């Protein structure tokens, strides 16, 4: 891994260097089209099915290359230089790890906690390796980006997510041997309290992950940091919960109104004729089924676009370095409109509109972003070529040199 110190503080730049140039605002555009990506998607899908998922890393490489090569910062596209065979080796590592965990937890559940410990010990290392691989194989203007997060940071932000699962395995009785009722109630109370505490701490834990991740992106001599307050992170989750609650209340109100009408109609019909005594009950069941379906649709159609909009704007507008500032101005109504059309056409076309939907969603999200440069990027590129840091052709020194797909 490359040392992080050269990126920690760029310091004052010499006169006439990048800092002396006027700030430049570079818009981000996406030039891909649904028809182009459809051809890639359908081939990827067929080959992945035929090879029993073994083609998946190569499919992922083709997809990533297409989306990055069609993402333009200013007038220059991102480059993608990953070797699909390295991605394939990483896929095999994760596949073997997953199968081993499944076998242990299925056939030897009494030592399932040992398998979980092994996964917890390896997962942060694999995740960091995947971030390194992805960034070090991405370039702009002929200069590769980098990820300079350390191993200790990866473990510190990911290990807390394994604590509830480990507690569940250790506290819940296994097998047919039932614990005493008092002990079972105590274990259930402890697990419940831990689950509640974990749910309340989730925004803070995710913020720690994003601070580690967005605080280790590097380009030439610039290293980013995430300047987001914990309260702002919790506010996004609280507002999203409010939107979800409003959706539930709306559905409940509609359901109550329809039930009132159906039951009223059923009572009137029962008074007029005793030949259809089950009309009201049948109508109530139909209304309940429709309400559940509507509620199920509102989550991906309304709640997720709302969270995605607020989360993207907060996260990327807070990511910056000494001379690079990222901005995101994604609007909820824009993403909502795209999502509504996408899901409608996916249903109508029986899933064939999926690649077009991915392109439409990527376009609206990417084109809401921009990059502001405080300096002359040509000087940064020249310095990178002089020092050899990040220039195309350098080998990526990540863990095993492979991508884990995490």
Strand order, sheet with most strands: 7-6-5-4-3-2-1-11-10
Shape estimate: globular
**Mean pLDDT metric:** 81
> Got a strand count?
11
Percent of residues in helices? 55-70%
Note the total helix count. Answer: 13
Structural class given helices, strands, pairing? alpha+beta
Sheet having the most strands: 9 strands, antiparallel
Q: Tell me what portion of residues adopts beta-strand conformation.
A: 5-15%
Features:
single chain; 406 residues; alpha+beta; 9-stranded antiparallel β-sheet; two-stranded antiparallel sheet; 13 helices; 64% helix; globular; disordered N terminus
General description of the model:
With 406 residues, the chain is of the alpha+beta class. Among the domains are: 81-227 and 378-406, no CATH class; 229-316. Helix content is 64%, strand content 10%. The strands form 2 sheets. The chain has a 9-stranded antiparallel β-sheet. A two-stranded antiparallel sheet has the order 8-9. Strand 6 (217-219) and strand 7 form a beta hairpin. The two termini are 19 Å apart.
Short note summarizing the structure:
With 406 residues, this protein is an alpha+beta fold. The protein is 64% helix and 10% strand.
How is this fold's topology laid out?
Layout: H1 5-8, E1 24-30, H2 34-50, H3 56-69, E2 71-73, E3 76-80, H4 84-107, H5 112-136, E4 138-140, E5 143-147, H6 151-158, H7 163-171, H8 181-214, E6 217-219, E7 222-223, E8 225-226, H9 230-272, H10 279-317, E9 319-320, E10 324-328, H11 332-348, H12 354-366, E11 369-373, H13 377-387
Antiparallel strand pairs: 1-2, 1-11, 2-3, 3-4, 4-5, 5-6, 6-7, 8-9, 10-11
């Amino acid at each position: 891994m490359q040392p992080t110190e050269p990126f920690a503080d760029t310091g004052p730049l010499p006169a006439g260097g990048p800092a002396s140039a006027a700030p430049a605002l570079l818009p981000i555009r996406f030039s891909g089209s649904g028809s182009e990506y459809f051809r890639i998607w359908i081939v990827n899908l067929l080959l992945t099915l035929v090879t029993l998922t073994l083609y998946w890393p190569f499919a992922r490489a083709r997809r990533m290359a297409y989306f990055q090569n069609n993402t333009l910062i200013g007038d220059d596209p991102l480059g993608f230089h990953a070797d699909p065979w390295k991605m394939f080796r990483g896929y095999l590592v994760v596949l073997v790890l997953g199968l081993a965990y499944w076998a242990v937890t299925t056939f030897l559940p009494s030592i399932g906690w040992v398998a979980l410990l092994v996964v917890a010990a390896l997962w942060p290392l694999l995740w960091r390796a995947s971030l390194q691989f992805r960034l070090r194989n991405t370039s702009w203007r002929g200069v590769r980006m980098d990820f300079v997060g350390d191993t200790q940071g990866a473990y510190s932000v990911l290990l807390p997510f394994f604590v509830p699962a480990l507690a569940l395995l250790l506290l819940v009785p296994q097998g047919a041997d039932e614990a005493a009722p008092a002990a079972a109630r105590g274990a259930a109370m402890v697990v419940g309290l831990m689950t509640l505490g974990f749910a309340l701490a989730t925004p803070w834990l995710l913020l720690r992950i994003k601070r580690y991740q967005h605080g280790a992106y590097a380009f030439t001599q610039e290293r980013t940091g995430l300047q987001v307050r914990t309260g702002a992170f919790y506010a996004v989750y609280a507002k999203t919960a409010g939107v979800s609650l409003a959706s539930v209340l709306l559905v409940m109100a509609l359901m109550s109104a329809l039930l009132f009408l159906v039951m009223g109609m059923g009572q009137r019909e029962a008074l007029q004729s005793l030949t259809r005594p089950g009309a009201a009950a049948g109508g109530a069941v139909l209304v309940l089924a429709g309400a559940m379906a509507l509620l199920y649709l509102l989550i991906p159609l309304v709640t997720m676009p709302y969270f995605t909009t607020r989360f993207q704007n907060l996260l990327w507008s807070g990511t910056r370095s000494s001379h690079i500032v990222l901005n995101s101005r994604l609007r909820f109504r824009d993403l909502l409109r795209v999502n509504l059309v996408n899901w409608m056409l996916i249903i109508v076309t029986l899933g064939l509109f999926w690649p077009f939907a991915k392109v439409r969603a990527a376009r609206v999200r990417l084109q809401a972003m921009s990059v502001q440069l405080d300096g002359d990027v040509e000087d940064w590129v020249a310095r990178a070529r002089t020092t050899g840091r990040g220039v195309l052709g350098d080998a990526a020194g990540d863990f095993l040199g492979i991508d884990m797909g995490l």
